[in-house]
Design a protein that fits this description.
Oligomer: heterodimer
Strand order of the largest sheet of chain B: 5-4-6-7-1-8-13-12-11
Radius of gyration of chain A: 19 Å
Largest interface: A-B, 43 and 51 residues
Structural class of chain A: alpha/beta
Structural class of chain B: alpha+beta
Number of helices of chain A: 15
Radius of gyration of chain B: 23 Å
Order of helices and strands of chain A: EHEHEHEHHHHEEEHEHHHEHHHHEE
Largest sheet of chain B: 9 strands, mixed
Chain lengths: 399, 481
């Protein structure tokens, strides 16, 4: 494997808009909200940014395609700006672009910004996507929850778990996020809910009920990255560096051969293995202090706990029910800020929103939800569908 | 060498509506409908039409003779899916027929199915498939709404293994307008039932039947199966009697369990008669509509050994009985429901792309990699097999539409727009190793689960309502209704 970017890139500023039904703001307003905070945090001026990566996913209800709208919104004059889109990994993809630019020496200071407005469709949930002229001719329709709900069949079949027990475990996943979201001022949903509410909610895509699905929100988040040397020169202490950013994209093996059993997400395992190798993580269950994972649906978070090699195969149900992933459970706190479940999932922003929480936790700036001396955090995105998608894993830590 | 019927098949949509449920919905304005509200009628799901039913009827008969031997394929219907786009070509593609097969559509009268059969018999130019497929549509609260049904029947004709031969026929034309449907109209317009019965059926049919029997040199008393299709209840028995044919020669099973299937109905009755037929039995087949085609057939010795892979009785038994009248109305676009903004997604078809991938879409042809053996659908440039990646030029075609399969994963999606919610979608694992994400239809009362046996069914994939274009593909359905 290549030597990687471990500790070659430092994060010196991050910002995050308030997530939610932002009927008051356009995409450019949301971007500005995040950008202002990041600039202030980094203590730099706009003109010091050498290059930018802008992540957004759904042009038709957003700011438009190409990087031009982002450059206009933030008045980034005359520098290279790239637009990236890689489904739900889009925000992390933007960070990857900015980090690689700094690591390569092509830029001293780079910006990664992700934004999405989902509340301009006129209805809840994501808009249906186009899959291209060929796939639209044969691929069935199916919402995002329908894609992920199928993990339930694969998982319970592999491990001989009853429908009822699995339903209870995934409900516990959502219950935990709602408990944490109460303490997150920028989260969309800030109410705790009971297990009974979750278990009794209307069905969206069997077995996923309403509370098994993350919210649909507007939001933006961004990061300013540079080299550790420049960061130090700018006066940064408790420096957060990037230990790894890895990506894995499906080749079609899961969806078109009989080698995958539907119980896990192959790409997450690939991306995690690559990221751990790059970051030098050998015992993730012991070394990782906190995680922000792609809990688009409760079943996704459950299998992700195994795909990230934190829970043993078939044991995530028990770890979840035992509170191992709770904020104060003595294990590996997961979704300390409430996750996608409570923030919602403005697609282009989510990866950077996760990094924002980890960054703040590592620096001891997470307010009421601050964990006790975390040193290594993980973010995880899962785009597309479990059987044909893209997974991103990044590891951030104190330098 | 005798030329005749060498095989037959039938399809009736699984969906059946209780006639009592239809009558109950209209009781407030037409209480009299309750009198005829017995039994059930077949109705098409939102994604079924004359093309999909034709494919389903024809699939079981394609082995005899081998599909490569067929010279022609005719589809008769009064409900063509397109006004200008040949349905028989779409059917031929789904059936993986050789490119040299002569295809034709026939329609515009309920007589079309029988006419197509007679025309091919007269032509006798090699193995042929004749399919009648129809789903007449009636106005809500009409007597026809209760009586109409849907279905398709197919006959293979050829010179080897003939199970029924033609021993006489008579045709006549007669501009007797019992009903009509103008261009662009959805529903038929019917004239008075007693006039149709007394001036039409009672006078036109016996005369033509007598002439046909005379040409065959057969006496009416020798007729074992009499086939006359009509949407008018009780008229079949009346015509049978007028023709001097024994009452027991007329069977009403299809009326009771399926309903009148337009141009396909007489053909369905013939397939049913052949299924019950014994060597030497005489069958009289009447096609009625602006005149008559009457065929007199005799079953050969070969009929005793013939076992259909898809017969009428099996199709009738494969039923999912519903009582939601509004469901039937919605599937037939008889009521405009609010489907929400999600239904507004445009589904314009790139016709160039559809043509490029027509073999994959037609008979669901995937491929097997000659290097690693992986069977895959769709066929992309390189093999999907782990660590293989061989070019697809190094592969052989594998049709998946008849390969046994079972369910790997599934969900019932209530969020997506779907005309028959919930949308059942999941992975289908084929016995030969192929795996495809598919829509699952006609799920019925038995819940889907991992391992549920499935078969493929040819359906409308989706409809571009802005341009009125339907595109077709395969879906999975549980083996057991």
């Amino acid at each position: 494997m290549a030597t990687g970017i471990k500790d070659k890139v430092a994060i010196i500023g991050m910002g995050c808009s308030r997530f939610g039904e932002r009927f008051d703001a356009g995409t450019h307003d949301l971007m500005a909200e995040a950008f202002n905070e990041a600039l202030q945090d980094a203590g730099i001026e706009r003109k010091q940014i050498d290059a930018a990566w802008f992540g957004s996913c759904l042009d038709q209800i957003n700011i438009g395609n190409s990087a031009i709208p982002a450059s206009l919104a933030l008045r980034l004059d005359g520098i290279p700006v790239s637009r990236v889109e890689n489904m739900c990994a889009t925000g992390t993809e933007a960070l990857r672009g900015a980090a690689y630019a700094v690591a390569s020496g092509a830029a001293d200071i780079a910006l990664a910004i992700g934004a999405e407005k989902l509340k301009d469709t006129g209805y809840g949930g994501l808009p249906p996507t186009y899959k291209g002229t060929f796939n639209d001719l044969w691929m069935p329709l199916g919402s995002a929850p329908a894609g992920f709900a199928q993990l339930a069949d694969g998982y319970r079949t592999r491990y001989g778990i009853s429908r009822e027990e699995l339903k209870r475990a995934i409900a516990r996943v959502s219950w935990k996020s709602h408990q944490n979201g109460v303490l997150s001022p920028k989260a969309h949903l800030r109410k705790s809910v009971t297990m009974e509410q979750i278990l009794g909610a209307p069905m969206i895509a069997d077995p996923l009920g309403l509370f098994d699905c993350c919210g649909v929100s507007d939001g933006a988040a961004c990061a300013i990255v540079t080299t550790p040397e420049i960061a130090r020169a700018l006066g940064r202490k408790d420096m957060v560096t990037i230990k790894a950013i890895q990506l894995s994209v499906s080749s079609g093996i899961e969806s078109t051969t009989n080698t995958w059993d539907g119980s896990h997400v192959r790409n997450t395992r690939n991306a995690a293995s690559r990221a751990y190798a790059e970051a030098g993580v050998t015992k993730p269950r012991e070394q990782i202090s906190l995680m922000e994972v792609h809990d688009c649906f409760s079943i996704t978070e459950l299998v992700t706990m195994e795909d990230l090699f934190i829970s043993e195969p078939g044991r995530a149900v028990h770890d979840v029910l035992d509170g191992f992933y709770d904020r104060d459970g003595g294990g590996v706190p997961c979704q300390v800020d409430g996750g996608l479940k409570c923030f919602g999932h403005p697609i282009g922003a989510s990866g950077l929103r996760m990094a924002y929480e980890v960054y703040n936790q590592l620096q001891g700036r997470a307010g009421e939800r601050q964990l006790k001396s975390p040193s290594l955090g993980l973010t995880h995105n899962l785009g597309g569908v479990p059987y044909q998608g893209v997974a991103a894993v990044s590891v951030l830590g104190l330098h | 060498m005798t030329y005749g019927i060498t095989g037959y098949g039938a399809y009736v949509p699984r969906l059946r509506m209780q006639r009592a449920a239809i009558a109950a919905a209209h009781r407030w304005m037409s209480p009299g409908l309750a009198a005829g509200a017995k039994g059930q009628r077949a109705f098409c799901s939102w994604d079924e039409d004359s093309i999909t039913m034709a494919v389903e009827a024809a699939r079981p008969v394609l082995n005899a003779p081998a599909r490569a031997a067929f010279q022609s394929l005719t589809v008769a219907t009064t409900r063509p899916a397109f006004a200008d786009l040949q349905g028989a070509s779409i059917v031929a593609g789904a059936l993986a027929m050789p490119a040299a097969v002569r295809t034709a559509d026939l329609g515009q009268s309920p007589r079309a199915g029988v006419s197509a059969l007679l025309a091919q018999w007269r032509l006798a130019d090699g193995p042929a498939l004749v399919i009648a497929s129809d789903h007449p549509s009636a106005k809500p609260a009409s007597a026809q709404e209760l009586g109409y049904g849907a279905g398709a029947a197919v006959f293979a004709l050829g010179s080897e293994g003939v199970i029924a031969e033609l021993i006489g026929a008579h045709s006549s034309w007669n501009l007797f307008v019992d009903h009509f449907r103008s261009n662009g109209s959805k529903h038929d317009y019917h004239w008075e039932e007693r006039w149709v019965r007394d001036e039409g059926y009672a006078k036109i049919v016996p005369e033509a039947v007598a002439a046909a029997l005379a040409s065959a040199g057969v006496d009416a008393a020798q007729v074992k199966h009499f086939i006359f299709a009509s949407p008018l209840k009780g008229s079949g028995a009346m015509v049978t009697k007028r023709c001097g044919i024994a009452a027991e020669a007329f069977d009403t099973t299809l009326d009771e369990q399926c309903g009148y299937a337009g141009a396909a109905h007489a053909c369905l009755m013939l397939a049913d008669a052949l299924e019950r037929g014994q060597p030497g039995e005489v069958i009289v087949l009447v096609g009625f509509g602006q005149g008559c085609d009457v065929l007199v057939l005799r079953a050969t010795e070969a009929i005793a050994a013939y076992r259909p892979r898809g017969g009428v009785r099996a199709a009738l038994a494969d039923a999912q009985v519903h009582g939601d009248y509004l469901r039937m109305l919605s599937y037939d676009k008889g009521i405009e429901l609010e489907w929400g903004m999600r239904s507004e997604k445009p589904v314009k078809t790139a016709l160039s792309e559809q043509y490029r991938s027509s073999d994959q879409l037609g008979a669901m042809v995937g491929c097997r990699c000659k290097r690693c053996g992986t069977v895959q659908f769709p066929r992309l440039a390189y093999c999907v097999g782990e660590g293989c990646g061989a070019p697809s030029t190094n592969s052989e075609p594998v049709p998946l539409s008849d390969v046994p399969a079972q369910l790997l994963t599934c969900t019932a999606d209530w969020l997506s727009y779907h005309p028959a919610p919930p949308l059942h979608v999941g992975f289908v694992q084929f016995e030969n190793g192929a795996r495809v994400l598919m829509e699952i239809v006609d799920v019925g009362a038995t819940a889907l689960d991992v391992g549920t046996p499935l078969r493929m069914t040819y359906r409308v994939k989706d409809v571009d309502t802005a341009r009125g274009f339907a595109r077709y593909f395969w879906k999975a359905t549980p083996l057991a209704a």
